[in-house]
Amino acid sequence: MLNVLSLVSYPFLPPKMGGQKGIAFFYAYLSKHINLTCITTKANDVSEVSGYKVINILSNSRLRYINIFYFFTLQSFIKKNKITHLILEHPYYGWLGILLKWFCNVKLIVHSHNIESLRFKSTGRFWWQLLWFYEKFVHQQADGNFFIHDEDRKYAAENFKLDEKKCITVTYGFELKEAPDSEEKIIAKNKLCKLYHLENEVKILLFNGTLDYKPNLDAIEAILKYINPLLLSNPDFKYKLIICGKGLPAVYDELKQYKTANIIYAGFVDDINIYFKGADIFINPVLDGGGIKTKLVEALGYNLSSVSTMSGAIGVPVAVTGKKLTVVYDNEWQNFVNAVITTDPKENIPPGFFDHFYWGNIALKAEKFLDKM
């Protein structure tokens, strides 16, 4: 078996948000094929991790990213445990990974969850170009590069001048091998109807995301300014739109007062899976942000019909979603609403979706790549 060390420089345990799940589930499934140890920050709760070892010794301070003494700690660990491969989550610890590659003779893999510099460009950070050149350098020095979807992989290969043989797509995944059955979905919808005092024939629309993240806030703006008014202009379409997520800025407090406009602000919910199972249509009016929209993958995995902008559907091949996903050009809100109204929630997600997005298949692909390095 391969001896792999991963370096995660921020909290991801317990996994609650999409990016955190992307790391935790990937390692849970990858550890079935390799010996895996993860070194991460003290803020992580390691009590419920199984399948691999987690050592939370990194500081929570931002200064951890420039702490040269971590080189000696990790160098000692690598030699003692005969580590063969080092995986970096994101490029931020690239300098450290490159030093460990040079001095410890390990294979270096950079696991990219998006092109980080372009993500910061989309959120208006003026220093994004400096990060772009650093990101390029780190990927060039790596022996292997994991990208979250094909578009990022192709972009990096062309713009970072990478050897395509050293790059593969390791997408965000889904834990189930098949969609929940119809009875589970009926039970979940009944729970939502009871919780929010809804009639069963009402179509439940769902939007979910971390609401202090600018791309999701922009999506909220689109919902309030364009999508919901257009839905309200179709009185024959009976619906309620439930918005879930934490971190709503105070300036959006009026969202809580939209009940008369068919919007229910649920805030952070303990079990989002009930919403994915019980809703009729997931809407994803996201226009930027980079990476793959993990909430869209989860919605489709729960056999939830979805309508998305083109930007919001990047990384989700329409070939594996059948009629379950409708993709609309960005900012074409009338077409977006038309798609919501005409979507048939009874369509089923094709089995090919799970061939592509099941975590077990994703981890096996990654393991084979590592083994050939």
How many structural domains? 2
Please state roughly what percent of the residues sit in beta strands, choosing from under 5%, 5-15%, 15-25%, 25-35%, 35-45% or over 45%.
Answer: 15-25%
State the order of secondary-structure elements, H for helix, E for strand. Answer: EHEEHEHEHHEHEHEHEEHEHEEHHH
Strand order of the main beta sheet, please?
3-2-1-4-5-6-7
Say what the CATH topology of the largest domain is.
Rossmann fold
- Name of the level-1 CATH class of the largest domain: Alpha Beta
Q: With helices defined by DSSP (H or I, 4 residues minimum), what is the helix count?
A: 13
* Uncertain regions spanning at least 5 consecutive residues: none
Going by CATH, what is the homologous superfamily of the largest domain? Glycogen Phosphorylase B
Question: Structural class of the helix and strand makeup?
Answer: alpha/beta
Mean pLDDT: 94
Sheet bearing the most strands, described?
7 strands, parallel
User: Could you give the count of β-strands?
Assistant: 13
Percent of residues in helices: 25-40%
Description:
The protein is an alpha/beta fold. It has two domains: 3-173 and 358-372, Glycogen Phosphorylase B (Rossmann fold), CATH 3.40.50.2000; 182-350, Glycogen Phosphorylase B (Rossmann fold, 3-Layer(aba) Sandwich), CATH 3.40.50. It contains 13 helices and 13 strands. The strands form two sheets. The protein has a seven-stranded parallel beta sheet, sandwiched between helices. Strand 11, helix 10 and strand 12 form a beta-alpha-beta unit. The longest helix is centred in the middle third of the chain and has 19 residues, at 214-232. The two termini are 13 Å apart.
